[in-house]
Amino acid sequence: MDFRSLPKIELHAHLSGSISRECLHEVWLQKKERGETTLEDPLVEMPAGKFDYDLDTFFPLFSRYIYSLCNDLSSLIYTTNSVLEDFQADGVVYLELRTTPRAIPSANITKVDYVQTTLDCISKFNASSSMKTHLILSIDRRNDLPVALEVVDLAIKFRDQGVVGIDLCGDPAVGEVAIFRPAFEKAKKNDLEITIHFAEAPQSSTAQELWTLLSYNPDRIGHVIHVPEDVREEIVKSKLGLELCLSCNVHAKMIAGTYSDHHFGWWRETGCPIALSTDDVGIFGSALSNEYALIAEHFGLDRKQTCDLARGAIDTIFGSEEEKKRLREIMWK
Ligand code: IMP
Ligand code: ZN
């Protein structure tokens, strides 16, 4: 089966984590030529074939390296276009990209500029491509409430340009999620959709945290790894959409064992809509087509089951009914 030509939906992809090493290298070369960077070459910093980033080494990669390299308008535009092209070339027909609004004072870029720039790239791409993309804005767990409310306000401001929801992400070892209640309440009140990184690591999987997060009424949850039985029952009862990421969980050792031990095997029986997703394809190196190939291989899915899995994600997109109709036409052909 050709997994690249299978029409696919990607719902859990972080913009800065989806930039390929080659693209980062090109940005670095251009900056090097202009004498604008003293950073190490991305291909040295993140060698080809190195995917074994764990929760301790993964998050600093952004704050220490990728954000320092992608720190002006031209690199933001170049890398965003490259990410969109990569998803399209992999056979993605609908993408919900997420990003944490980031001000870059050294380049005079505000968070508004950052979101506007990302949306401009997306809207140009949407106009000339069969892949349609929407944007989700992320709150980082290390943020305080005013910053989180700012993210929600940005999402409201840019809703008519393609922002569809709010995400909660970031290092699961950091932060107290209970402080974000007013931000998620405001998002709901303004009809924004909500997705939340959920039970990603043992530290972020206490009963208290998970019930707090469910009380924010998320429409989808991501990862869903370390979930106690009573919380699982609630998720199944509410038929929440699940964003499941395979390679990233295996490489980062977020699950015990390997591909065939992934909790996809458990959730697939529950009737919750599942969107197989990449998380950070630039870091973990497995395109969505490869994630489908791995799932098919390790869970014995035949062609029809694989197509049905891909189609199942339609029900949980944050896009419109019209978009769902378009996807049904493409994916049931
Ligand atoms: P950005 O939001 O476009 O800058 O993408 C990178 C950011 O996404 C990182 O700084 C993290 O906060 C977040 N992120 C990426 N992957 C993960 C993950 O697996 N868990 C939680 N947060 C993540
Ligand atoms: Zn994620």
Automatic annotation (TrEMBL):
Cofactor: Zn(2+)
Organism phylogeny: Eukaryota, Fungi, Dikarya, Ascomycota, Pezizomycotina
Protein's GO biological process: adenosine catabolic process; inosine biosynthetic process; nucleotide metabolic process
Quaternary organization: Monomer.
Reaction(s) this enzyme catalyzes, per UniProt: N(6)-methyl-AMP + H2O + H(+) = IMP + methylamine
Entry keywords, A to Z: Hydrolase, Metal-binding, Nucleotide metabolism, Zinc
Gene3D superfamilies membership: Metal-dependent hydrolases
Membership in a protein family: Belongs to the metallo-dependent hydrolases superfamily. Adenosine and AMP deaminases family.
One function term, GO molecular function aspect: metal ion binding
Ranges where the Adenosine deaminase domain occurs: 7-329
InterPro entries registered for this protein in UniProt: A_deaminase_dom, Ado/ade_deaminase, Metal_Hydrolase
Protein known as: Metallo-dependent hydrolase
